[in-house]
Amino acid sequence: MKFNEFREPFYIVWNLISICMLLFLVVLFVLDSSLLLVAAPICPSKLKGTECMLCGMTRAFLKIKEGDFSLAHQFNRGSIILFSLIVVNSIIFISEKIINHKKL
Fold this sequence. Notes:
The structure is a single chain. By secondary structure, the protein is mostly helical. Helix content is 76%, strand content 0%. It is built from six helices and no strands.
């Protein structure tokens, strides 16, 4: 199979994931931090006494929102990188939609 056969399905999946990331950012910045912390479920790994690679990510993202990057890094070492990737992807997605005037 050629790359061009996968181009359109890849583009559709990227659009869907990008929309979810944008909604995530909107929710993060619109809703109150305490409401998000109450709504966040307890990680099943925590219940077992272990940690997964996403443990602490909710608190870390809330600290990034507040501008406290050192505490965010303490909550989860990968949070700043993941948050940055989400923001960069969202900027590219919005830019691509504006420049190419493509429908979602």
